[in-house]
Each structure stands twice: as C-alpha cells, then as structure tokens.
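PROTEIN DATA CARD
Card holder: FAD-binding PCMH-type domain-containing protein
Chain length: 548
Origin: Gossypium arboreum
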Amino acid sequence: MFPFLIVVLFSLSWKISDSTQPAEEFLHCLSLRFHNSSSISELVYTQHNSSYSSVLKSSAQNFRLSTPSTPTPLVIITPLHASHIQATVHCCKKHGLQLRIRSGGHDFEGLSYTTTYEVPFVVIDLLNLRSVRINVEKGTAWFESGAKVGELYYEIAKRSRTLAFPAGIGHTVGVGGHLSGGGFGLLFRKYGLAADNVIDARLIDVKERILDRKSMGEDLFWAIRGGGGGSFGIVLAWKLKLVAVPAIVTVFTVSKTLEQNATKLVHRWQYIAHKLPKEIHMSIGISRVKSNENEKMTIQASFRAVFLGSTDELLPLMEEKFPQLGIVKEDCFEMGWAESNLYSTQFPIGVPLETLLNRNRKSILSKLFFKAKSDYVKQPIPETTFEGLWTKFYKEEAQSAIMVFVAYGGKMDEILETETPFPHRAGNLYSISYMVDWEEEENKNPEKFMSWIRRIHNYMTPYVSKSPREVYVNFRDLDIGTNEINDKENSHEQAKIWGIKYFKNNFDRLVNGKTMIDPENFFRHEQSVPPLPCLLKKGANSNSLGSL
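Structure generated from the sequence above:
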C-alpha cells in the first residue's frame, strides 16, 4: 500500500520546486501514515493541484485576507476521518510545519487559513467532517466541527419546532470555531452562550490522542469552551444540550433616522434593553442611508428584536418597557425559531428553511473585504457622544460601515465570568461591533477603510470598558497585539497584552492549561494562548490533565 500512496501523493505535487522541499517531505510522511489509499487524491491539495485555489477560497470569508499577496499553505488536508488529522499533526510536528485548522473560515483575521508569519504551514480544512446527530428525546446533539451553524439549525428544526441551540445567526459560520470563542446569538439572554451549553467533546491533542471530556479533564474541557481556536488541539466533535423554545417566535425591525428622533431612542435603549425579560433579544444597527425626504445622507438606527412568544404577548410588554419606540402589530411577524435566524441576517421573510444549508450564499460578514472590531459598554453613553459619532459616518470610506449594539443582561448576568474562558458577563449593558467593508476595486487602498474604523474605535475609548478594554475573541482583532513567532522567553508577557482583553483574569488559567497540555507550543498562531516557560523549568508535567 505505501508505495502506491507515495506515487499518488507525489503525482499531486510533481511540479513542486526545490524551494518547497518541506512539502515533499511532509507528503512523504503522510503517505506512510494514511491507512486508506482509495480517496487520498481527493483529500490532499498541494499548491500545484488544479483544485488547490478553489478549495482554499471556498470558505475564505474575508476577501481582505485572500489576495495574491496573502501567504498560502503548502498543503491543504480535507480529512474524512480522525486518523487523517492524527497523521497530519504527526507529520507537521516531524517536519517543523505550522498548522492551521479551518472550520468555517470566519476568523476575522483569517488565522484559520493564512498567517502573518513568514513560515511554511499546512491547513486542515474540516469541511468533510460535518455530521449532525440529534436526539430529540434526550434533548442533545452531537455534531462534527466542520458543520455550519445553518446545518445544525436545519437538522434541529427538521425534528422539532420546540428545540433549539443558542449559537449565532450567521448560517455559514463553522460551529467548531464559533464554540471555541464562546458563541452568542439570539438565545444568549435566555440560555447563555453556545459554549455554556456544551456537555462533551472529542479532541485530538498534540500527542495525537483522541480525548473526551472524561479523559481530557475538566481544565482542558473548560479551556476549549471559549478560550479561542487553535491553541489546545483540534476538536473533532461537540455534544450539545438543546434548549426549549416556543413553536412561534415574534420578530420586528423598526428603523428611525436622525430626523425621526433616532439619537434619543438609541440613548434611551441603553437604559432599557439589558433589563428586558430574558425572552427578548434586542439589538440596534447603525448605518448611513439616504433620507426619504430630500435624498440627503442621514444616520439610521434599526431596532431589531426576536421574542420567544407571540405578537399578542410582545406588544403590551414593549408598550410598558419601551413605549417611545412605538411598536405596533404591523411591525411584527411570527415564524419558527430557525427562520428567525435567517430573518436576523436580513434574508426576506418566507425564504425556504433549506436556505440554512447553502454554504456558499453571501450573508453578513461573508465573502466581503472587511475589517471589524468590538467593545463592551458598562455605563450609558451620553447623547452628545452619539451625535459626534454620527458625523464620522459621513466620510466617504464609511459608505458601507455599520455598528451593531447587542443588549446583554438576562442569563448572562447570572453566569460567573470564570465559568468558561469567556468573561464578558455581568455588568455589561451591551456589546458593540464595528464593521466596515469595501469593494474589490477599492482594495487597492484598503488602509483608508482600516484607518476609518481605527479612528472610530479610538473615539469610543472614554465610553467603553477599561482596564482592560474588553474584546470578543470571535471578533478577532490583530490590532490589539500579536505573539512573536519564536520568542519563547517573552511569549507570555506579549500575549498578555491581547489576552487580558479577550479573557480578563481567565487568561492566566488558560496559560496554565496550555503549559500542561502543549508545553512545546505546537498549536500556535498570532493570537494563540502560549505556554509559560517558567512553569516548565519547575518541572510541569505535560501528561497531567488534572486540576491546575
């Protein structure tokens, strides 16, 4: 079998030059460890394979990180079985290649499929590992990390209209990466994050072992539920606790411009939204639009909500809590919970549920050139600050910019910030997401767009969380700091600059866990959790996965 595998693998890479000798050595190593030769040509893609480019770009969601100058992997592996991943980990270690793991390709800085380091690397793309198994009677689900959020929701909805899972709204997001950073969505005020509802997992560690919750221990299980992807191993599959929802939910979107009192409504929303019942998810989208009256540019605030109940239940509640918004029956639409996720990503009402299965359809923050940032707000922002903020949206580069405010409170106030690595719990009124995107022809000068969002972010500094200024790890932002590629002695101090912003005091526990499970820092990238060299010098035992 082995000679045949070698022939197949080298036929894939026969054009590789001497400068890519590591690829040849890596492929030879794989040929000795892959146990099934029948589909090898469909699983391994070198830079000279005719399908390499299409596979690489298939789930590269941020086109800013998919240009001719973007570093690309020596090889892409699309495994069908855990053994293919184990072999890839082994051969990357043996030949000194970095490894990136891609679930859905939605890492905002592209760290699942590219690098800012000038080093050879390999990508494991989990696109073939996407099975979903639902147990309605037990209210649980097992799914593989390559599954998309939309595929998970579709499989749940097919079997039950009263079960759901509290993940995000982007249907093309890979669930594996989403869970690794926490994962918030329409149900998080009722049930917490996606990661809060994970009850088991199967992970391949640096020693190529397959571990479940029991064998990995509670510290590693804690770390993978919100500690960010690419630091601790490769999660093959997750077991989820499904949650109860009514068969019918109610949604609305009400948009107000500055001329319609938008500023005062946004200001008032800050005092109300986080105190609403857990059954309401409420957000505001801020963008620049043309005024209906005179075609001049103005600012629009779109107030959106998803309520776990009927219109008749929602209307009196909104009249009591937020009468200024003026919600009426005609603003409201009833639908199933799965459909509400499509509505929340601005799909038209009535699109078929199968839309959730379309892995290539463009949606929010997919298949765009963009840059994003995030913040958390703990005190209401003054009206005058909003008025100053709106003026910045009239700049040319802000044509497609948007800010999204998402109300916190509810269940998030009840979960300790140490429960998982995701620390942004009680005390937050809402989160802010900043996004700016641009067209391909404008990508000749992306810096003007990047500069705009950085100026906005700087303007907001006095009004958001401080010491640290908190950031959501799934809204990856390399502006806040990166690791040096080979600086082992100072890696912890460098990483702490960005680490405390993502994880607050949980960062140190993540570092201790990394030191125990991956002391040589094999699983690493620009913002991966590093091991702590001083602990290693004191004799840390990497075989120990117990309490730290």
